[in-house]
Amino acid sequence: MSLSAAEEDSAQEISIPAEIDWEMLDKSKFFFLGAALFSGVSTALYPVVVLKTRQQIAQSQVSSFKTAFSIVRNEGFRALYRGFGTSLMGTIPARALYMTALEVTKSNVGTATIKLGFPEPTAAAIANAAAGLSAAMAAQLVWTPIDVVSQRLMVQGSDNLKVTNASPCKYLGGIDAFRKILKADGPRGLYRGFGISILTYAPSNAVWWASYSIAQRLVWSGIGCHFCRKDDENSENSGNTLKPDSKTVMAVQGFSAAMAGGVSALLTMPLDTIKTRLQVLENEENGRRGPTIGQTVRKLVKEGGWTACYRGLGPRWASMSMSATTMITTYEFLKRLSAKNQEV
Question: What is the reported pLDDT for 7?
Fold first, then answer.
């Protein structure tokens, strides 16, 4: 795929690697390598997720550093990985669903929008947004029960952080938590917050993938303009097609992903805070039954005003930006490793 790097009347172009679509992938290699690579990413970023979850359910605003220090001092370093085994087990099927829905939707919607006459940049943004939306909805079928169980484990031992209405049950591990939640609340207990999860992650993924597509084009355009100005000074190389090396391509992808992650985190943070509280906290008025969305919002606003909906924004922003950067560079690398024709 060639991407114009400057204005339309410029002869300078940047030739970047072609997009690898679903039909070009060796599926068995794609899923096997994907499970291994994304498990590594999840391992590195899990402590940040624990910090975010603790902050979101705390009764008052507590800084990330203070939260981390308190966890390590009172519960030990291992507490930063509480619930990790459960989360990791859910990563493999959830990622498989996510990547399948993402690639199939992106390929089909991209082809359809081009046939409808949309310009290529617009078609790419629409295809990416639709792919992110469908991938998030598919993955939540697995992720919501995993989230409920792993987050219950994350907040155990958090009494010193002034957590209110946390579940009184003490869990010995992921299987024990799964069994006790199922016994107490039935299957609905494992899918607590499923609706708000869809409302959180579906728009978040749509915004992220669309933003990533747009950001990547803007960055490549800026690089093209830079080289065009250099060509004005040295006319000998004018008109050549620039072929960035793999390191440059990965750097652009990573930077674009970080930009998209920051935008997505900021826009969807209140929904994520509400979702976490719905999945973790009990309702003091209704006994075992979880609180409603309305009750959760009212309690948040009562505790700290509307800014309480943004508790944990720092860790989530960092987590989403780092996760997006590592995820997209890993994902693009995975696709090239899994391509049937390696000359792409």
Answer: 36
